[in-house]
């Protein structure tokens, strides 16, 4: 019970320190939530090691911030961003407790490594991302079908599809300038899997960058430019870019928080995960405390970190996964 | 051509250095000036641009708060600044004694006719040209051999950076030791001192200014390295202070890297502010080098 008292003091201190009203209201909200989970975070210490996707990094870092402010300041949480693949590599050899992932674990390459090292894990969806296809703002196109996207990005298009009117006769006669993430990124894996039908299969004659800001700049400054990346980057740069609606057979749907949440923005709305090591969760109190806190306050954390929060159904699924973990 | 000719003559008069008057050498001179101006202007533009962008965020929050992915306006680099300080101190402790010892061996003790000494020499020259990423990999291997399961700790980073700057320290120290006049050694030996005593009491103290300058410049190169730290998997989300050589940490170059890759503009401003902090730390080290050099300078 003592920590609740300190939480009140800390909250009022935070009022002095944090100018952001949003952060403030969240602090109160979290302090209120903390009441029920107080027992599990009290007096925790030790290490929690997280690595993985740079897309999920801001979310896990935000969870850490609130976790430490809300009653567990002595837990040393470290969050890396080696990428989804690099994260699983460390996770499956038992180096980390939690792995951030912007795609599910690969059954043929990564899961066997985990099995070999006897690392059992639980997959928890923590947020949703809408992969956004963007074009130069002057492009007179509003909607694109998944077939047209495939025509542009499939490996066979390399060197051949170089003009917009080759994609569809109704499209303008303009040179196609492509930008996208590099092959190491989970975003690339997900996009190629959904659009081209095979993970990693993509034409390679495009401007590739691991830095989404480079793709933003490229598309915004090249007439005929097209690229794809996570929704946040579009939101922050909505004034210099145009997001295309995507038609997968059921009509054109614009990427947005709502369409990603209700599942109508398909197939490019993708789940973001954390993978929790069952052993770490069972053996280390601080890992269990952190994961419980993360999931319990998932919606607030996601909104604060500017991610698309889960819908009720997904949230219930994540909670039941957590329950099966023993939380 | 005529105008160039006039220019040439006036150039020769004001320059006063050379009596060249043919156009070719004049063009060359112009090229030299252009290169110099170009380099300086680019540097100046970069520094000014960064300063203008980041100066507004050089506030208390930058130094006292941790990296936040929620409060972008008040995000801080506290863990990174302290991490870089720990990293530099540990790197110095590892690299300086080893570097100086190796240089003294080469200059004062090694028999250059031996094949293994020549082999070491060639190796040393090549090491200075190895890309920093490779040293990161090497440090990962060393940490694994030492039995650490987590490489992204201060010691791991320090090993990588120490390996990176070791060749530079050895080479500059050798230059400094070589610059000590022969007579000092001869005098000492003639008075009955052993070679060890001569090196320890005469040669080394006389070479301190050169050694300090080279070493500190090498350290200030290491301070800005991100690549080897990335290889080590040094994490970015660290919300506590590093508290020893075995603690996890993060460093300023990585923090800058992470902020510049974020979509919100506030992080780019924070990155510019962090660059200014990093520049200040480098300048501080260079200032220290100048002070040490002036304090220990001897004239013969």
Overall description:
Chain A is an alpha/beta fold. Chain A is about 45% helix and about 20% strand. Chain A has a 5-stranded mixed beta sheet with strand order 2-1-3-13-4. In chain A, strands 8-7-9-5-10 form a 5-stranded mixed beta sheet. The radius of gyration of chain A is 21 Å and the shape is elongated. By secondary structure, chain B is mainly α. Chain B has one domain (about 65-295): Orthogonal Bundle (MetI-like fold), CATH 1.10.3720.10. The longest helix of chain B has about 30 residues, at about 25-55. The interface of A and B includes residues 19, 50, 62 and 212 of A. Strand 2 of chain A pairs antiparallel with strand 1 of chain B.
Quick recap of the structure?
With 327 residues, chain A is of the alpha/beta class. In chain A, 46% of the residues lie in helices and 18% in strands.
Task: Outline the fold blueprint.
The complex is a heterodimer of chains A (327) and B (300).
Chain A: H1 2-17, H2 21-41, E1 46-52, H3 57-69, E2 75-79, H4 83-92, E3 98-101, H5 111-116, E4 121-130, E5 132-135, E6 143-145, H6 146-153, H7 164-167, E7 177-180, H8 186-196, E8 207-208, H9 212-221, E9 225-229, H10 231-236, E10 242-243, E11 245-247, E12 252-253, H11 257-262, E13 269-277, H12 278-283, H13 285-296, H14 298-304, H15 312-325
Parallel strand pairs in A: 1-2, 1-3, 6-11, 7-8, 7-9
Antiparallel strand pairs in A: 3-13, 4-13, 5-9, 5-10, 11-12
Chain B: H1 2-15, H2 23-54, H3 60-64, H4 78-109, H5 115-127, H6 132-146, H7 154-178, H8 182-190, H9 195-222, H10 227-231, E1 237-238, H11 252-260, H12 265-296
